[in-house]
């Protein structure tokens, strides 16, 4: 299910826009919804605690 106001789905941290959200079939409506969803995603991300990831392992590329 999709909350039509927040565009968030029942799946935590998953938002939708456009045809998936309200089946508007209009590119301009989809773009507006995507902008709203992006703003709401940003607000949710700001509430989250940052996670520190370990450094990436170096890959060695062999020249042929």
Write the layout of secondary structure elements.
Blueprint: H1 27-47
Question: Could you name the key traits of this structure?
Answer:
elongated; FAD/NAD-bd_sf; 64 residues; mainly alpha
Total E-strand runs: 0
Number of domains: 1
Structural class: mainly alpha
Task: Estimate the mean pLDDT confidence.
Answer: 83
State the separation between the terminal residues, measured CA to CA: 51 Å
What general outline do the C-alpha atoms trace?
elongated
Number of helices: 1
**SSE ordering:** H
**Rg over alpha carbons:** 18 Å
Quaternary form = single chain
Strand residue percentage = under 5%
In terms of per-residue confidence, which ranges show pLDDT below 50 for 5 or more consecutive residues? Answer: none
Largest β sheet strand count, sense and barrel closure? none
Query: Level of helix content?
Result: 25-40%
Describe the protein in words.
- By secondary structure, the chain is mainly α.
- It has one domain (1-49).
- It contains 1 helix and no strands.
- The longest helix is centred in the middle third of the chain and has 21 residues, at 27-47.
- It is elongated and about 50 Å long.
- The mean pLDDT is 83.
């Amino acid at each position: 299910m999709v909350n039509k106001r927040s565009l968030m789905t029942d799946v935590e941290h998953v938002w939708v826009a456009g045809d998936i959200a309200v089946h508007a079939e209009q590119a301009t409506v989809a773009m507006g919804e995507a902008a709203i969803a992006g703003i709401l995603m940003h607000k949710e991300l700001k509430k989250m605690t940052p996670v520190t990831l370990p450094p990436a392992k170096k890959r060695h590329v062999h020249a042929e």
